[in-house]
Design brief:
Helix content of chain A: 40-55%
Strand content of chain B: under 5%
Helix content of chain B: 25-40%
CATH topology of the largest domain in chain B: Cytochrome Bc1 Complex, Chain D, domain 2
Number of helices of chain A: 20
Radius of gyration of chain A: 40 Å
Strand content of chain A: under 5%
Largest sheet of chain A: none
Structural class of chain B: mainly alpha
Number of helices of chain B: 7
Distance between the termini of chain B: 85 Å
Order of helices and strands of chain A: HHHHHHHHHHHHHHHHHHHH
Number of strands of chain B: 0
Order of helices and strands of chain B: HHHHHHH
Largest sheet of chain B: none
Largest interface: A-B, 66 and 70 residues
Radius of gyration of chain B: 27 Å
Oligomer: heterodimer
CATH superfamily of the largest domain in chain B: Cytochrome c-like domain
Number of strands of chain A: 0
Structural class of chain A: mainly alpha
CATH class of the largest domain in chain B: Mainly Alpha
Distance between the termini of chain A: 114 Å
Chain lengths: ~425, ~200
């Protein structure tokens, strides 16, 4: 009896196993255990996420519900492994997909095993069941707050208020002192003239007409005027602070600051040429073929660059840094050979919405830097002998000046 | 009275000079304009107004333009720069003739550079300049721009594990899929260096 009972109890799981096994081999079953889902998540993030999301359409379709849409799980597996082949085979669903997303075609993932793809599908199903995320992740690109700079200003106000209070107290003490002295003098025997002097009327008119007051006013006004004239004369020929409006409201703060695009990506000549170069429209289009919505300006400004690209019309940017023609300057020499950061001369460009000339660009400004800056001789065999000769004569490090950086004809010829 | 008159003169002079200071759209007053403005064609400057600087013009130019005019009427858009004529080859450069759609030929190209640590380091520096903002420092396709530009490839993904350096060179040159051509920005030698570095990403 016990044997008869135990037989079905033993065989049932076996039969079930074979049933499941045969089912998997025909139309494969998507696993649901957590290990498969987490393996699928890793695979999805590493391989699929560039083009696919679970809930939103990106480059490729949203993957939620893909198992219901697609003809079969087997079809998905063969498509993922080799999309071009499935499309070329004339498969109806694949051709319709391709027509919808033309000209982009999915990359072939021939290295994936069936299990990998099933794991990915398991992850997609699990994510789809959760539903789209309700709250967006914290807003991207929040401006970095520079709270540190505001603190001293608050202290400054407190200090000023304190000083005003002290001055008012001093004034009150002085008034008391004067009245005390007057009372003291009244007790003495004074001649009528002296008495008149002590009790002289104290009005605004007498102060305004006094010689001392007129002298102070004239002196202050003349000094301020003199300083303004000198400042004005010194600003002649200097374009520091020049920040012209450009034909397209391009923001370095967004591109170089928020999105950390290297200066050299657009200013292609900076390592090899005298000029850093202003990028041509095709470089802008490397991103703006897809990104049409600006962070600050909406669609209007980006539309200008697309139009310039399509009509092959150069954009007439306004030149900000106008070094006089009498002076020679070479970007490659400074940036490539000298290893100087762009910001050393151009200032915090990555924080500027409108580019502003940061430095003086006067000869004195150039010379100062050439006197102070040590020559970048590391790993440059050209300088080896020069450094050797220099160290024989001097104990200080070799500066640009020591290499002829102050010679007139280096920049003026 | 004399004092007041001289103060007024001084003040108006100061106000007038304050206008010389640069700021906003005002470039400020030039000190010696004849020496500031280039007589030869200046590549990144263009002044198309023929009368610009008429007030200090001392040379009789044949077409009657004034001192500051700097523009080449024979070029497209009267620019001082121009695109090299088609089918010309830059000195010291070999043209890359494999067209965009023939990537399977490019797959077989061999990197002319050696795999030294120095070359890979240079490749990394170039990668950080030209590729990092989209493909991310580890090549995972997670650079800051990838938030906005959908479909940035993960260079370490299984599908791209087996690609050759020639393939990478070709894709940088001509672009592929959603990536546009970067051949105009990155020199051929730099592209090979980047290819060397990309193959070290895991």
């Amino acid at each position: 009896m016990t044997d008869q009972q135990s037989l079905p109890a033993r065989t049932l799981p076996l039969i079930l196993f074979f049933l499941v096994a045969s089912f998997v081999s025909n139309g494969q079953e998507i696993p649901s255990e957590p290990a498969a889902i987490s393996a699928g998540e890793a695979l999805f993030n590493n391989n699929c996420r560039s083009c696919h999301r679970v809930h939103e359409k990106l480059i490729g379709p949203a993957l939620a519900g893909v198992t219901e849409r697609a003809p079969s799980v087997d079809w998905i597996i063969s498509f993922v492994k080799n999309p071009p082949a499935v499309i070329a085979s004339g498969d109806e669903y694949a051709t319709a997909l391709f027509d919808q997303y033309k000209p982009t075609m999915m990359t072939a993932f021939s290295t994936f095993s069936d299990e990998d793809i099933l794991n990915i599908l398991a992850y997609v199903q699990a994510e789809a069941a959760k539903g789209p995320a309700t709250a967006e992740a914290p807003a991207e690109g929040q401006p970095v707050s520079s709270a540190g700079e505001g603190v001293p200003a608050a202290y400054l106000n407190l200090i000023l208020i304190g000083m005003v209070i002290i001055l008012v107290l001093l004034l009150i003490i002085l008034v008391f002192l004067i009245s005390a002295v007057k009372r003291f003098l009244d007790q003495k025997d004074l001649t009528p003239e002296q008495r008149e002097l002590v009790h002289a009327p104290f009005t605004l008119g007498t102060i305004l007409r006094s010689r001392g007051f007129i002298f102070i006013v004239v002196f202050v006004v003349a000094a301020l005027g003199f300083k303004a004239v000198i400042n004005g004369l010194y600003s002649v020929g200097i374009q520091q602070g020049y920040a012209p409006a450009q034909p397209i409201a391009f923001s370095h703060k967004i591109h170089a600051g928020q999105y950390q695009i290297d200066c050299n990506y657009c200013h292609t000549g900076v390592m090899t040429s005298k000029n850093a170069n202003i990028p041509s429209a095709n470089i802008c289009m490397n991103c703006h073929n897809q990104i049409k919505q600006g962070t600050l300006t909406g669609e209007a400004e980006i539309a200008k660059i697309v139009k310039a690209y399509e009509t092959n019309t150069p954009i007439e940017w306004v030149r900000v840094h106008n070094l006089p023609d009498l002076a020679y300057f070479n970007h490659a020499q400074h940036v490539n050979v000298g290893g100087i950061e762009c910001q050393t001369c151009h200032g915090p460009i990555e924080t500027m919405d409108v580019v502003r000339q940061h430095s003086l660009l006067t000869m004195g400004w150039c010379i100062d830097c050439h006197r102070q800056t040590e020559l970048n001789t590391k790993g440059n065999a050209y300088y080896d002998r020069l450094v050797e000769l220099h160290s024989k004569q001097s104990k200080s490090n070799m500066t640009v000046m020591d290499n002829g950086g102050l010679e007139c004809s280096k920049c003026h010829y | 009275m004399r004092v007041i008159r001289s103060l007024t003169v001084g003040a108006s002079l100061a106000i007038a000079l304050a206008g010389c200071k640069a700021g906003g759209d005002n470039p400020g007053l030039e000190y010696a304009p004849n020496m500031y403005h280039s007589v030869p064609y200046d590549p990144l400057t263009q002044i198309t107004d023929k009368d610009a600087g008429w007030w200090l013009t001392s040379i009789d130019y044949s077409d009657g333009h004034a001192e500051f005019y700097n523009s080449n009427p024979f070029n497209p858009h009267a620019m001082n720069m121009r695109v090299p004529p088609p089918n010309t080859v830059k000195r010291g450069h070999l043209p890359y003739r494999i067209p965009k759609d023939s990537i399977e030929f490019a797959d077989r190209l061999v990197n002319p550079l050696d795999s030294t640590a120095a070359i890979v380091a240079q490749g990394k520096a170039l990668y950080m300049k030209y590729c990092n903002h989209c493909h991310g420092p580890q090549g995972k396709g997670d650079g800051p721009v990838a938030d906005k530009y959908a479909g940035v490839a993960n260079l370490t993904s299984d599908a791209l594990k087996g690609i050759s350096e020639g393939h990478i060179f070709h894709v940088i040159t001509h672009g592929k899929g959603l990536m546009w051509a970067h051949g105009s920005q990155v020199s051929p030698e730099d592209r090979w260096k980047i290819a060397k570095f990309v193959k070290t990403l895991k």
